[in-house]
C-alpha cells in the first residue's frame, strides 16, 4: 500500500515495507518449492526443475532448493547440472558430510555412463573426482583403474595399485591384480612374486593359482627348448631360453643349475658361480613342503649343484693359471677344496699353482695329500719326483749334499726313468765320498742316455785305467742295467694300467645338456699343468715331434761316437758345480729337466 500523497515516508514505515517484501518473496519461493516437490512426485521433472529454479531465483541462500533441484537433474540424467547444485549446497553448508558424499556418487554415476559409452578419458576424470571426495571408498578407485586399463595405461595402473599396497592393508586380491598388470607389461618375475604373495595370504585364491600355473608351464616349455638348443651346441640360444624360463619361474633351482652349467661351458665363470650358489640356496627353499621322492630329488639336485660349483671353481682356476694369475687360482681352488675335500685332482692343481709360485713346501704338501687319496695315480708320482728333484737342487746349491742325495733318491723312486735324477744324485754322492753309489748312478745315466757327456769324466775318475767301453760292458754294468730296466718296466706298466682304466672325474657324466668337461689335471706325464683333454691332433703332433727328436739324437750319437780302435786314456776332470746366488736357477753344468710344464 502506497503512503498517502503528500505524507513523508518514515523509517518505521520503510522497515515495515521491507519486512512485508521479504515475507512475500519467501512465501512465493516456498510456493515454487512446493510446486516443484509436487511435480517431482508426479514425475514431471522438467516442471520441477523450473519450479526449483524460480525458488532459487527468489532465495539463493536456501540449501534445500539446490539439493532438490540436483536430485531432479539426477532423474533427468543431467549429471553435470546435478553436480553443480550439490557444489552450491556444499559451499552453503560445508559442515554437512552428506552433500560431498552425494556429489561423489553423482560423479561416479557420470563416470559409469561415460565408461559405458567408451569415453574412457572423460570417465576417468569423473571417477577421479569421486575418489577425491571419498578417498576411503575403494570402488571409486577401482573404476579409475578400469579406465586406465581400458586406455592401455598399464604403468599408471601399476603405480596406483602399488600405492594402495603401500598405504592400505595388503590383500590377496590386490596382489593378484598387480600380478595381472605385471603380466600385461611382460614383467614375469614380478608377476610371479606377486602371485606367490597372494597365495601366501590366501592359499585357495583360484585366480592366483591359475595364473601361477600358466607361468610355470611357460617356464618349463622354455627350459625344454633350452635343453634342445644345448644338445645342438647352440649355447647362446640355449642361454636365452633358460633366461626366459627363469623370468617365468625365478625360484626353480633346476633352472639355475642348468644356466650355471651353460655359463661354465661359455667360460663365464663369475656368472656360473652366482647361478650355482643360487641353485644350492633354492634347493633348501622348496616351493612346496618336500615329501617322499620329492625330498630325495631335492637332495640329488643340491648335490649336483655343489659338484658343478666345484667344477666351476676348478675351471676358473684353470683359466687364471693359464694367464699366470696363480694367487687367484689358489683362492678358487681353496673354495673348491672346502666343498669337496675328497678330490685328489684339486690338490694336484693347487700344488701346481704353488709350484709356479716357488712355494715348494706347500706344493709338496698338496702332492702328498693327493697321493694319500689316490696312491696309484702316476701323474702324482711324476709331480712328486719333480718337486723332490727341485728341492734336491736347492739343497745342493746350499752345499747340503747328503740332503740333496736323499731328495734325489725320492725323485728316483717316483720316476725311475728320468736320467737327470741319476745324474744329479751321482754328483751329490761324489760330494759326500759315496763313490760306489756315485759310480752306479753314473752307469745308470749312460744306460738311459748313452750320449750324455756330463757323467763320463766322473765315471772315468772313479774307475781309473778303464775305458768307457770296458765299464759299460762289464758284469756290474749289465746287472745295474737289468735292475734299472725292471724298475722302468714296472713304472711303465703302472702308467699303462692307469691309462687303460681312465681317470675318474670329480662327477658323473653330465646331463644331456653337457659335453665332456675339462679334466681336473693333466693325463699326459709330459705336461704338469691344468689343461683340457688332449685332442687326437695334439697326440699326433707330439708323436711327430718325439720322432724328430729321436732322429736328431741318433744323428748326434753317430757323429760324436768315439773310435773303436782308440785305447788311450779317457780321463777328464770333473767339472765343478757352479754355485749360483739365486735359488731359482739350476747350476750351469747340470742338464735342465723337461716335461710337466714346471720348469723354473
Can you offer a commentary on this structure?
The protein has 600 residues and is an all-alpha fold. 71% of the residues lie in helices and 0% in strands. It is built from 26 helices and no strands. It has helices at residues 11-41, 45-58, 63-75, 79-92, 98-116, 120-133, 138-151, 154-167, 172-184, 188-201, 206-231, 235-248, 253-265, 269-283, 293-322, 326-339, 344-356, 360-373, 378-397, 401-414, 419-431, 435-448, 456-462, 468-473, 475-501, 536-560. Helix 1 packs antiparallel against helix 2 (45-58) and helix 2 (45-58) runs antiparallel to helix 3. The protein is rod-shaped and about 170 Å long. The chain starts with 10 loop residues before the first helix and ends in a 40-residue tail after the last helix. The relative contact order is 0.04.
Amino acid at each position: 500500500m502506497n503512503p498517502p500523497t503528500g505524507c513523508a515516508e518514515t523509517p518505521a514505515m520503510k522497515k515495515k515495507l521491507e519486512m512485508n517484501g521479504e515475507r512475500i518473496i519467501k512465501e512465493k519461493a516456498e510456493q515454487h518449492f512446493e510446486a516443484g516437490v509436487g511435480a517431482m512426485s508426479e514425475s514431471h521433472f522438467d516442471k520441477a526443475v523450473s519450479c526449483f529454479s524460480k525458488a532459487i531465483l527468489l532465495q539463493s541462500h536456501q540449501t534445500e532448493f539446490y539439493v532438490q533441484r540436483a536430485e531432479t537433474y539426477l532423474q533427468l540424467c543431467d549429471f553435470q547440472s546435478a553436480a553443480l547444485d550439490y557444489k552450491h549446497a556444499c559451499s552453503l553448508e560445508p559442515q554437512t558430510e552428506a552433500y560431498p558424499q552425494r556429489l561423489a556418487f553423482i560423479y561416479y554415476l557420470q563416470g559409469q555412463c561415460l565408461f559405458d559409452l567408451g569415453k574412457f578419458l572423460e570417465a576417468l576424470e569423473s571417477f577421479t573426482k569421486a575418489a577425491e571426495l571419498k578417498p576411503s571408498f575403494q570402488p571409486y578407485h577401482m573404476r579409475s583403474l578400469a579406465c586406465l586399463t581400458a586406455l592401455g595405461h598399464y604403468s599408471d595402473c601399476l603405480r596406483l595399485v602399488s600405492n594402495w599396497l603401500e598405504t592400505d592393508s595388503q590383500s590377496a586380491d590386490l596382489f593378484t591384480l598387480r600380478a595381472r598388470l605385471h603380466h600385461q607389461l611382460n614383467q614375469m618375475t614380478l608377476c610371479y612374486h606377486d602371485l606367490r604373495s597372494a597365495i601366501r595370504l590366501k592359499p585357495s585364491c583360484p585366480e592366483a593359482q591359475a595364473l601361477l600355473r600358466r607361468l610355470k608351464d611357460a617356464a618349463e616349455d622354455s627350459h625344454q627348448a633350452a635343453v634342445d638348443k644345448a644338445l645342438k651346441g647352440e649355447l647362446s640360444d640355449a642361454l636365452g631360453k633358460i633366461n626366459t624360463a627363469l623370468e617365468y619361474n625365478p625360484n626353480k633351482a633346476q633352472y639355475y643349475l642348468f644356466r650355471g652349467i651353460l655359463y661354465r661351458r661359455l667360460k663365464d665363470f663369475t656368472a656360473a658361480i652366482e647361478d650355482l650358489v643360487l641353485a644350492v640356496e633354492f634347493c633348501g627353499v622348496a616351493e612346496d613342503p618336500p615329501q617322499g621322492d620329492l625330498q630325495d630329488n631335492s637332495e640329488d639336485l643340491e648335490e649336483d649343484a655343489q659338484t658343478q660349483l666345484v667344477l666351476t671353481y676348478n675351471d676358473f682356476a684353470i683359466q687364471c693359471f693359464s694367464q699366470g694369475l696363480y694367487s687367484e687360482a689358489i683362492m678358487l681352488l681353496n673354495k673348491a677344496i672346502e666343498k669337496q675335500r675328497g678330490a685328489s685332482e684339486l690338490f694336484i692343481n693347487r700344488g701346481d699353482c704353488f709350484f709356479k709360485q716357488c712355494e715348494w713346501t706347500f706344493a709338496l704338501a698338496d702332492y702328498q695329500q693327493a697321493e694319500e687319496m689316490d696312491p696309484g695315480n702316476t701323474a702324482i708320482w711324476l709331480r712328486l719326483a719333480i718337486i723332490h728333484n727341485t728341492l734336491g737342487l736347492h739343497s745342493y746349491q746350499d752345499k747340503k749334499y747328503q740332503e740333496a742325495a736323499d731328495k734325489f733318491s725320492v725323485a728316483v723312486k717316483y720316476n725311475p726313468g728320468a736320467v737327470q735324477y741319476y745324474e744329479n744324485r751321482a754328483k751329490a754322492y761324489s760330494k759326500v765320498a759315496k763313490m760306489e753309489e756315485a759310480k752306479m748312478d753314473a752307469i745308470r745315466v749312460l744306460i738311459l742316455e748313452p750320449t750324455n757327456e756330463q757323467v763320463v769324466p766322473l765315471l772315468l775318475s772313479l774307475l781309473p785305467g778303464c775305458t768307457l767301453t770296458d765299464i759299460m760292458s762289464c758284469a756290474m754294468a749289465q746287472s745295474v742295467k737289468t735292475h734299472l730296466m725292471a724298475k722302468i718296466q714296472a713304472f711303465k706298466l703302472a702308467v699303462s694300467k692307469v691309462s687303460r682304466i681312465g681317470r675318474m672325474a670329480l662327477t658323473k657324466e653330465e646331463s644331456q645338456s653337457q659335453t665332456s668337461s675339462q679334466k681336473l689335471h693333466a693325463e699326459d706325464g709330459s705336461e704338469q699343468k691344468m689343461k683340457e683333454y688332449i685332442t687326437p691332433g695334439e697326440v699326433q703332433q707330439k708323436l711327430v715331434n718325439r720322432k724328430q727328436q729321436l732322429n736328431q739324437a741318433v744323428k748326434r750319437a753317430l757323429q760324436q761316437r768315439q773310435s773303436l780302435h782308440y785305447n788311450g786314456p779317457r780321463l777328464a776332470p770333473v767339472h765343478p758345480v757352479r754355485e749360483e746366488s739365486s735359488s731359482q736357477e739350476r747350476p750351469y753344468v747340470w742338464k735342465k729337466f723337461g716335461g710337466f710344464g714346471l720348469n723354473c
